[in-house]
Amino acid sequence: MSGVGVRRGKNHLLADVSWRVELDERWVILGANGAGKTTLLRLAAAELHPTTGEVHVLGEKLGRVDVFELRPRIGFCSAAVIARVPPQEKVIDLVVSAGYAVLGRWREDYDQLDTGRALDLCEGLGIGHLTEREFGTLSEGERKRTIIARALMTDPEMLLLDEPAAGLDLGGREDLVARLSELALDADAPATILVTHHVEEIPPGFTHLLLVADGAVVAQGLIDEVLTSENLSRTFGQDLELDKIGDRYFARRRAAV
Ligand SMILES: Nc1ncnc2c1ncn2[C@@H]1O[C@H](COP(=O)(O)OP(=O)(O)OP(=O)(O)O)[C@@H](O)[C@H]1O
């Protein structure tokens, strides 16, 4: 993205964002509610065009490329995607049908190879025992992992995760963070961008961080260099203290003295 702005009426959702993601990088976008994180992700998903500036996705310039050819190269996981899944859909069908592009489409004979790959992905995401269950019967965390398995089924060149841990309990969050960490550390995994509000949700193995506030970039670069108490405080507009324990981050408001 170069000099990117997104405007709706008088509202500037994003202003002058320049940002580059390489294929072997794993990025976290962190910011407060309304900062512009989802808008950034929707640009990366070729779901939105910038008002100003240029966006290139997987080497193609938005505005010049047929987005319907571009989107199958991108795996996009969000609450909106989960909301579109028919509740009666079987987990294995949902994952395997990703290759056929249409959500919820049912085909009588999946190739054995496709089914095997779908089962492997479900296994890897800890939902191997749930493949015969209907999507509507799954817990929130299991749904999220199913949607990630589905997104990976097409072997995307880029994986976008919009608040994957939102709504999960502590155990569910920790489990998902561990799975995403495994994915991040896998050299064959696609370029990954994860949106979150919480430093606790940054999976080890993610390499880069983009901090956003009020539609603008506060700081960006390697996580270890960019994630500081000062930058976090600027991003959330309050005096925050950051700790790193092992390979995980924790933040809280600095106690008044
Ligand atoms: N179509 C629109 N018209 C006007 N304002 C909009 C529109 N879409 C989004 N916005 C505003 O743009 C800002 C950024 O929205 P965005 O969804 O990108 O934020 P976010 O960082 O993902 O927030 P959250 O963490 O709450 O999901 C918000 O203030 C939102 O109200």
TrEMBL record:
Matches recorded under InterPro entries: AAA+_ATPase, ABC_transporter-like_ATP-bd, P-loop_NTPase
Keyword hit for Nucleotide-binding: yes
Domain ABC transporter: 1-239
GO molecular function: ATP binding; ATP hydrolysis activity
Keyword terms, alphabetized: ATP-binding, Nucleotide-binding
Name of a matching Pfam family: ABC_tran
PANTHER family for this protein: SKFA PEPTIDE EXPORT ATP-BINDING PROTEIN SKFE
Protein name: Iron complex transport system ATP-binding protein
